[in-house]
Every structure is written in structure tokens, then in C-alpha cells.
Amino acid sequence: MNSLWEAAKKSPFLTSANCEAKMTTDNQLVANRTIAAAAAETYSCEYGSSKYYALCGVGGLLSCGITHTLVTPLDMVKCRIQTNPAKYKSIVTGFKVSVAEEGMRGLVRGWAPTAIGYSAQGVCKFGFYEAFKIVYANALGEENAYVYRTGLYLAASASAEFFADIALSPMEACKVRIQTMPGFPATLRAGAPLIYQQEGLNGFYKSLVPLWMRQIPYTMMKFACFEKTVELLYKHVVPKPRDQCTKGEQLVVTFAAGYIAGVFCAIVSHPADTVVSKMNAVKGSTAGDTLKKLGLMGVWQGLTPRIIMIGTLTAAQWFIYDAVKVWLGLPRPPPPEMPESLKAKLAAAQH
Fold first, then answer.
1. In the chain, which end has fewer C-beta atoms inside a 10 angstrom radius, N or C?
2. Reduced to 3 states, what is the DSSP secondary structure of residue 215?
3. Number of H helices, E strands in the chain
4. 311, 266 in Cβ contact below 8 A?
5. Any domain includes 32
6. Coiled coil: which residue ranges (predicted)?
7. R_g over Cα of the chain
């Protein structure tokens, strides 16, 4: 952890802020370096410290756990459309059939594994992203980290999601079976032991590879598109610089950028999401067999509810995550700016 902290002290995302924050000598962020804020303030921890990563993990837990649990009804209908399109032909039909057969209570089937699984995923997703972002930026150096920042966002988010999905997979397997498999127990405490009894640990991880195929492209788009959209909104849409915006105004920008990123996330990751849902609903199936059965058009079943769900979900996640960072007093660097050394090189090249 100390090596991560040392890397954070040299991070281009920290040095590019070039804004002063009000701190005591004992609680200074990094000697001779400062970080941006909308106004001068004291932070609760140093950028890149173990406490910083832990609190980012708390923000990820709340953002992913709360949002995914709240959209459980829509997620359940989406999964049923993917696994049984003949019966659940559309969002409206899916809700009608589900309520008619199971009542209103049936709409929240799978809420427990959803809450647990996505909370664990959120801790890893956001906590590791912050860590990998700092490590990769430090490895590239200040100028390259700025020039190739989109690639940096993609690499950091992919690395974080790799570990996040390992945490998510067991609960995802339980959730999909609870929601889509006829005769399967309706609760996590009954369903998880049954999976282990019938299939062992493999039952919890058999869809891990398709989960990576779904979640890694999704998360790469989620973080890279969000970071670039925030940068473009402040540059071309927001009528004043970020450091002159209130925290409320900054959170509005965060929500807007999150929704835009969410729409692209849903489209990029949807085919793999359909494969994951179908695999977990059919005992003994493999990713290859499932993909053959679904065909080219079949993998796009349930796209409309997923765009609605993921767009709203991603916007809410970024809003909650950023709000938690504000609430906990964490450093929040602004979008990166071109380093002075690179500006000087470009200016010299023009003369």
C-alpha cells in the first residue's frame, strides 16, 4: 500500500490540478503539490493513501449496491425476456405475467444476491480503478499520461473489473437462477446451498468468463466515456470553469456524463449479458452452446429495458459515488489539463 501512496504523490492527475487546497502543515496532501477543489477546503485523507482507497471502496459499495438493488424488478424482467422470450415478449408483458403469477412480491425476487454481489463488485470496481489509474499514470509519466489518458482509463477500468467480477460471480449465479429458473428456491439462503450441493464451486463460477466478456467492456466504456464526457462538458457546455462551480453543479455534470456513458455501456455489453443470463438459467450449458442457440439476433433480446436500466443505473452510480466523495471529504481532481512541459514543446515545435 505504501508503494501505491508513493505512486500517487507523483501522479499526473494530482500534479495537473495546480490548485490550492487549505490544509495544515501536518495534514498537507503532498509536499509542494496541491489538488483542485471548487473552493479551498480541508480533506479527510491524502490522495492515494490507504484511507483514500478504502473510502473510495465505500463509495463504490454504496453506488453499486443501492442502485442495482433498486432496479431489481426491471433487471428480473430483462433476464426473463432474455431466457424465455416466447413467454415474456416485452417489458410490459414481462411485468404483467410476473405479477399475475407471483404477485407484486415476485418483482423483488433476487434482491438479496443482487445487493450483496453488486456491493462487493462496487468495492473492487471503484477502489481498484482509483489504484490502477494512479499506478498506470505514474508508469507512463506526466506527458504520456495526458496524451494517452483515454487508453489509461480503459486499462485501469479493465484491470479493476477483472477482480470485481470474481467477487460478483457467485451472487450473480444465484440471482439469475432465482429470477429465471422454474422451481428454483426463491431465497438466497436456500438457493446458494442447492447450487453448491448440485454443482460444487463450479456452479458459482461457470459463467465467470462470459461475465468478464460482459462486464469488462461495460466498465471500460463506463469509466473512459464518463471521464471524457466530463472533460468535454466542462470544456464546451458548462458556462464556467469547474473550480467556479458549486459542488451541486459539479454533481449535475457528473449525473449527465454518467447517463451518456451508461447508454453506450448497455449497447457494448448486451450480447454477453444475454449469454450470462441464458447460461445461468440452463443447467450444464456452456458459453459456446448458448451463443449458437441464441444466434445473431437472439443476443440482442431485452436491449431496450437494459438501455433504460443501465443508463439510469450508471448515472445514479456516478452521482452517488461522487456525492459520497464530497460527503467524506475526499480529494476530487478536476479533468486533466495539458502539462506545462508539453505546452512548451508544442509551442517550440510551431516556431
1. C
2. helix
3. 15, 0
4. yes
5. no
6. none
7. 22
CATH number of the structural domain spanning residue 289: 1.50.40.10
Distance of alpha carbon 213 from its chain centroid, rounded?
A: 15
Residue type, 319: F
Contact by Cβ (8 Å): 74, 302: no
Q: How many alpha carbons fall within 13 Å on the CB side of residue 38?
A: 13
> What is the reported pLDDT for 194?
94
Half-sphere CA count of 335, side-chain side, radius 13 A: 20
Q: What is the mean pLDDT of residues 186-215?
A: 91
Per-residue pLDDT, 20: 35
Whether 124 contacts 163, CB under 8 Å: yes
Whether 94 maps to a domain, the answer reads: yes
What distance in Å separates the CA atoms of residue 307 and residue 259, rounded to the nearest whole number?
10
Q: Are 43 and 325 in contact (CB under 8 A)?
A: no
Give domain status of residue 28, yes or no.
no
Neighbouring residues of 40: CB distance < 8 A, sequence distance ≥ 6: 20, 21, 22
Q: How far is CA 345 from the centre of its chain?
A: 36
Q: Is the pLDDT of residue 152 over 60?
A: yes
Which pLDDT band holds residue 280 (cuts at 50, 70, 90)?
low
Range of the domain at 314: 2-8+45-341
What are the residue ranges of helices labelled H in 103-141? 111-140
Report d(CA 94, CA 294) in Å as an integer: 19
How many domains does the structure of the chain reveal? 1
Beta-strand (E) ranges in the chain? Answer: none
Distance CA 162, CA 215 (A): 8
Give the chain's length: 351
Give the least confident one: 124-138, 246-260, 292-306.
292-306
| Secondary structure letter of residue 49 according to DSSP | S
Asked whether residue 217 is domain-assigned, the answer is: yes
